[in-house]
Design brief:
Layout: H1 6-14, E1 17-24, E2 27-34, H2 35-41, E3 48-53, H3 57-65, E4 68-79, E5 84-97, H4 101-109, E6 115-127
Antiparallel strand pairs: 1-2, 1-4, 3-6, 4-5, 5-6
């Protein structure tokens, strides 16, 4: 697992949304979610992120054959290398869980969720 550095932690804490990419037989697929959804469920210092799942059917289908996931956040609220704006990229493995502790916590905050995407980071890096 990869640790989240302070700069990426600040980006995740201030980002309005996150993009989540998977690969499948039809090529790449990207979905988005709100940053506060991820912050509500929490993420760990060792790079485990939880995302409530309502739809995301194609993402789920892609994960069945290829567990690789990339997540990206960006915000102008964090100063980047060349001016305002900083991003963070997470590469790792994902699975959708529909039972267990992660799902119990997800349903408590998001009763509409049919599952929770649990992403375990292999790499966490800064962008911009």
């Amino acid at each position: 697992m990869a640790e989240i550095n302070e700069v990426c932690r600040e980006v995740v804490e201030k980002a309005e949304w996150a993009a989540i990419a998977t690969a499948g037989p039809d090529g790449p697929h990207v979905v988005g979610t709100w940053g506060d959804y991820i912050r509500t469920l929490g993420y760990s210092d060792d790079g485990v992120f939880r995302v409530p799942v309502g739809g995301m059917a194609r993402l789920e289908s892609n994960l069945a054959s290829d567990a690789r996931v990339e997540m990206m956040w960006g915000t102008r609220a964090v100063t980047g290398v060349t001016g305002s704006g900083k991003g963070c990229l997470v590469r790792g493995r994902g699975e959708i869980q529909t039972t267990g502790d992660h799902m119990d916590a997800t349903r408590a905050s998001f009763p509409w969720a049919r599952g929770v995407l649990v992403v375990t980071a292999d790499e966490v890096g800064e962008l911009l």
